[in-house]
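Posting for a labmate who doesn't have an account.
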Amino acid sequence: MRGLTDDVLVELCDLAEQGIHDPDAMPFLFPWSAAPRGELARNTAAYHWRVRAGFSPQSWDLQLAAFYEGELVGAQGVSTANFLITRTGETGSWLGRAFHGRGIGTAIRRAICTLAFDHLGFEEVTSGAFLDNPASLAVSRKVGYRPNGVTRMKRREGELALNQSLVLSPGDFIRGADRVTVTGAESVRRFIGLG
């Protein structure tokens, strides 16, 4: 994984346009991936530009491009507010549809959790997935997240969906066999006020 620079963002927008999930499904609370072709790319770029512009020590969203065997496959991030007090944040990710089912989602989630716990001082991370999204829930289970309540939410217009909240502490983190190497964390630490 690496930072989402504008050159990578162009590729990420193209990847989103190729499809993220079955068109009849909606894994996201905000149905951003249902935008029409062309609009989806523009929305994806605008979202990442807003995230960068709003990055501050008080509230930040670190979005990273995920690569597999040199090919861009999706994005993985962690967002937080008041981090120096709370030491927690929410992880979220997506993969291009062509890359589902290969264990990549689990690998990138382990990578962001390694960064969070080992390099940025997180004391917990949270996540969530709708109960009708077993693949996402399986990724969280493989990494060690524990259930933390179910919330009734409006997903699409007129549609109720049940969202499983999840929480992970360093002691529950299942790292897996692959070694994760992190570079560049010191710059992030300085920017968010960790010295």
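Reply:
Got it, the structure tokens are right above this. Strands lie at 2-3, 59-68, 71-81, 88-95, 124-130, 146-154, 160-168.
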